[in-house]
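Hello, quick one for you while I still have it in my head. No rush at all, and the record is pasted right below.
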Amino acid sequence: MSTDPLAREDPPAAATATPIATFRKRSPDHLDPPIGNEKLPAAASIGSTSASEHKRRRLSVDTPPLSASPPVSVGVPRSTHSASTPGIPLGPLLFHQAVSAHRASRAHLQQTFIPSSVRCERHASYPLITLATGKGATPKPFEHDHGAASRALGLLLLSLHLLRIGLDSKELSYAERVAFALEFATVGFKVLNTLREAKAMPLAKAPELPPVDVTRLVADMQDAIGSSKMGNLAKRMVRHALKDTSRQVDPQDHLLIGSSDDHAHRYALILLLVELLLEEPVDALVVLSELIAEASARGHRQVIQVACLARLRILFSHRRWDAIPAALEELAAAVGWVDDHAVVLSRDVWGVSCTAHYILLRCLWEARIGRDAVVKSLLKTAYDILDRAAEAGTFERFRADGGVVTMSLQDPAGRAAPLSLLVQSTPPNVLYILTFLVTVICRRDYMGPNRSCKNLAHSRAVREWADIARKDDMWDVTFHPAHSAAEALVWQRQVQRLRADAMLEEMTARIYRCEVDLVDELFVEIVRHMRENRLVPDLAPHLCLLYGHYAHILGYDAAASRYYLACKALILPGSELGLVTSVSLLAVMGQLVGASDDHERQAVVNDLATKCAASSSAALNAVGQLLACLTDGHLMTSKKKLSAAYDICHRSGNNILRALVFAFTTSTHLTGSEDRILKQLETGREIAAQMGGKDREDGVGLVALGLWFGVKLKREWRQRLGLIV
């Protein structure tokens, strides 16, 4: 959750991810001013010149771009005044030109965000995304610009050059120097973050950017901000900044909650510290608790909602399942959610966004504990809230600001004017993708024909327009002045990651429906997509597990074992994915058959059963109960465990596990009346047939279970007819 650390009009949105080195004074290198058509140095920051030289220099946007290849369009209004023109001081003129270049870079972010693979040909059946233009300009359909990132960065470099000239001038007042330094740091952070994100991209997709001397840029940023005793660690710096906003002094350098006139600035610093501590969940949760306490004391409800939402995200990210129920209750109280219903104003941008996030996180938790009916109701509410907001035009404003929400913070005593805090929320295009994806993950319903299977329908909704620049869809978003090309590249990767997740969910559905041809085709497409977007390290374990299941279902035990072992090698031991892989590996190796006859295998199975049953995941709990039956020699306790597993599957809507329970019951505990036995077998066969069988002539869906129940039914009828003694 990115915020404005300085709570100003044009904040360094991505500055939170870049640690700053120790501040120090230095004597900048002297460079002669450009003469004639001589180009400026390609480095991001330019050294100082004397004030007299600055006066002699004519400031004009005819100055060549900072990089010779590719050319960078500066896009700054032409100035016809010289530095010595009476009535126009050097400082304001430089600052105006620098800010103009900074703002002009925003026009190229939309084209940086949308990858070149997305088609933008006009079509009668759908409108194209409108190209972001200035106010009053005639809208026009989106078109690609392969040099957009380079142009955006070039304008930022031009802004840095002009600001550096101003900072080196001795004509600036103290207030002007502070303004120049703040703008220089803001633009500098945007440049550094853009370079970092571009470097992380695959070489084939990385934009060509002007060369930048990063070391020199960092040094110039240090000079611009000034010397400081705050240390060379970003976390320590923010803590010191927080203490500077407090009236208390803490010699142990702990975070203090004190009074400050500029509480918006303080909130932004605290949220910045939380972002720096995301990999240290304990410390981050402590900071958020203090933020909630401070915001509660001041009555700033929206800040409380931000903090509660951030805390819940951290708990999910670090698998702190025990703390999630209480955190969900606190967020529900903060957003006003009562009895599965919240009064959300369709035109309240933050209210819609925050409530939608609460519902999605609540769905993930309810699905985990196996409450499918609650998930179904919550998702219906989520779609209703989003649809009403779209009809009210709320998402148009939200999309135009790139998901940035401006929060007005009232002074509790009413003595001061309201302050503003910028908070980066999820843009509407990503929010819709998340909603579809959560629907698929929480309700893994693989039943029915292709046209009505829920998982396939939602996966198609995500993939159908993934490569088309359609309005109000996946790629339709513009950017806030706080953003830079770094945010555009980050969001592009996030959307590509969500696309990959949707493809994996579709592949899961195709595997269990035994649609072999489509699985092979989809597998090739997923691997290509992951390689092109450098997603292999993130999603390789999931992909290995899925392909292991695929080989397992088709009866290729050796291949399945190889993929299961690969998955196990890629994940941390003790994780829930590791439990799933271990159970699958035992099954494909035949270790679950006759496990009670071998003490070593029995011990391994019992250990896995205990770990699965202890999980808060309903699916793992059901697997644990089922595994425990394999080694339980007592008929009554075994039947109780099977009954518990069946109840979990029925409550959570897990039809695959439900069919497995039926299969185990009919193989070991087939008791009761003849009608009951037949009903169990026919139900199991119908579940297997529903998984893709309705679309095939043979009517076979999930092949392994379909054959199992078919053979059992045939044998049962032959016994009844007296054909088998």
